[in-house]
Design a protein that fits this description.
By secondary structure, the chain is an alpha+beta fold. The protein has one helix and seven strands. The strands form two sheets. A five-stranded antiparallel beta sheet has the order 1-2-5-6-7, with helices on one face. Strands 3-4 form a two-stranded antiparallel sheet. Strand 6 and strand 7 form a beta hairpin. The longest helix is centred in the last third of the chain and has 15 residues. The termini are close together. The N terminus is likely disordered.
């Protein structure tokens, strides 16, 4: 896993169920370890969608119930850190 120099902002751009999403995840600074952040505030298509965090290898986003959407965001975050 490569360590990025700016771990505070993770760019996000992906398609989910036929809709394109673009935005970013802004890291909660105390969630970062060795250059990887595990809790981020998610902003997509101009909206604040809430906080996503990783717990025991699973992505959780209390403000969103669509697990597929949550997992897609989590995958995009992990891909950025690779």
């Amino acid at each position: 896993m490569n360590i990025k120099t700016n771990t505070n902002t993770v760019p996000l751009s992906f398609e989910y169920k036929g809709k394109w999403y673009k935005g970013m995840g802004k890291a909660v600074s105390d969630s970062c370890r060795q250059g990887v952040c595990f809790e981020l505030n998610i902003f997509l298509n101009g909206e604040n969608l809430g906080t996503i965090y990783s717990e025991n290898g699973e992505w959780i986003m209390p403000a969103t119930k669509d697990e597929g959407f949550i997992n897609t965001i989590g995958q995009q975050i992990l891909l950025w850190y690779e």
